[in-house]
Every structure is written in structure tokens, then in C-alpha cells.
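Feature request, filed as a ticket because there's no other form

It would be nice if the structure record came with a short human-readable summary line next to the C-alpha cells. Right now we just get the raw output. Example of a typical job, pasted below so the devs can see what we mean:
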Amino acid sequence: MKGIRERPHRLLGALGRRERRHVTQINGVKESMSVKPTTTNMTDRSTSSDALSSPATWDKQRMRDNLVAHFEGKVRRGEARVPVERLIMQVGRDSLFQDLLARWDGLDGRQRVNAWRDLLRLCDRHAAEVMPTCIRCGECCRHGSPTLQTEDLDLLRANRIALDQLVTLRRGEPVQSQQADRPFFLLDERIKIREGTGTQECVFLDSEQFACRIYQDRPVQCRAQACWDSSATQELAQQPYLTRRDLFADVPLLLDLIKEHDQRCAFARLDGAIKKLAENGAREPDELLELLNYEEHFRDFVAAQLNIPEDMRPLVFGRSFADLLPLYGITVRIEADGSRVLVAT
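Raw output as currently delivered:
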């Protein structure tokens, strides 16, 4: 894409707190871009000296930096419905922007001031009139992976999406929502594409190219995703979700063992053990530790008997109790002698 193509790794927070680094792609050439605290209000004396300088003195880099800051401010104030990255990419495709960018270095001071005003009007128009189409900016993919619907079963059967890239969220499992401060408990089972370790990014997001590795075979939830209009995803949420019973319908023995695991290692037992631990001031951790050991033994034993690969266990059994403890503010530390110790985080 010609012109500016800003691709920040995360939606930036409030301006004016610290300098931030991004990667900008201009006419196909990647370069480092430093976005400093700026404002488009040239009369605001509370802003930095960079922001107070006139557009007449800005070079092309400073103009780009202030343009990004303008978008950040609009998102922060709730004046734009879509992420910063989406707005930047959309404006970058506008012929007026491309023309002003190409001519900027040749403009005199007065012309640059007028051009900056034109750019602000252009940015405001794009913020108010978002193109109703996905421009593949990757912002959605960085904040969570898709949950699969029954319609996605054909993709799995055709091996378009590998089973070892999936994870099951079991009924009753505590999950963390982006919209809620505290975990909540699932009423029904879900199967999701995995997220990167320690992140919320979908594993199929190429974080270098900001592209989906399975775009042509992406799940139905991804196809319905629209940052400018949530109605399609809301309608899709009323459709049936894919479960392990759908996926392993031809393997009744495995389904029986999955059912046994769900009964013996129900999340109500984990929740009860953690509540009891809190009530006794963490003085008696044995019940919780025994439950963790039992659940791990069950998974290992069944996996060994049925030759289930390690990377398939999150799909077959879901996330382990030990993996979920951080949601309760607890982690497990393995001592030198192999014993386990609960540690508050």
C-alpha cells in the first residue's frame, strides 16, 4: 500500500504518558517510528513543545507522528468506533492522503498548515464513515482467538485447521473475559483455536506480517467479525457451538473417557477446594494439591493408553486444573524433590 501504513502491536492507551515505538511501512519500506505525546490543538499550552510547534515546521516524519497521535486521541475519547490501526490503514488508502504525503516536503510553511488542516478533516471523515469491509489489519486477532461453531466441522474434517491447534473450554470452567474484571463460569462447552503463550493472540496470526495464516479457511466466527458492526457476531452467538461430542462422534470409547474425566474432575470440585483453601487461610492445601495430582494422573493415564499426543490433550481433556490456577491468583511451583507447592501470585 502506498503512503503510510502504521501497524501498532496493541491499541495504544492515553497519550502523553510515555514515548512509544511502532513499525511503520511507507511505500513498502519498514522503518522505526517514534510517536511522542502530541495534540492537534496548537493553542493548548499544556502539551509538549513538539505538539505546540506549527505544522509549517514539521518534516514528513513529524507530520506522520502527529497524525497517529490524532487518531489515538479520537479512539481514547470514544470518537471512533474502530481501532487506531484500522483508521490509519483506511486513511492510508485515500488518494488525498497519498497526494499530500508525496508533496509534503515540497510545500512551504503556509501550504503545510493548510495541508495539515485538510488531513485532519480527512481523518475525521474516515473516523465517522468507516468502510464496511475488513481490511485485514489484524486487530481482532490480537485480542482473542475464535470459538468454533458446528459449521466449522467440515474445516476440521478436511484438515484445513489442525486439531493440535485447538483447545476445549469445558462446561463450568472459569474463563476471563476482556469485558469483565473477574472470571466467570461457562454454562456450556466451547472449542477454540489456541492463543499464543502468555498472549491473547490467535496462533494463526502472523505477528510479523499481520496476516492470517489460514485466511482462506478461517472459521465462521472470523468471517462474521466486523469491527464496525457487531450485529453479525451477535446473531452467530445464537447458533450452536462445536463440541467434542460433534468432533469425536465416531470414537465412542474416547467420548466415554471424556465424560468420565468431566465427572471426576468437574470444575465444581476445583472451585470448592479453592474456596476451602481461602477459608482456612491457605494453611491446609492438601485437598487442592491432591485434586491437581489426580487430574494430572487421569490425563496422563488415558493419554498413554490411547496414545494421545501431548499437543492433542488440550483439545481432548481441556485445560488442566494447574493451567487454570492463575485465574484464582495461584500458581504451582515444583520443588527439587518433585513435590508441589502452591504460590500466591
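Something like this underneath would help us a lot:
The two ends are 45 Å apart (CA to CA).
The mean pLDDT is 78.
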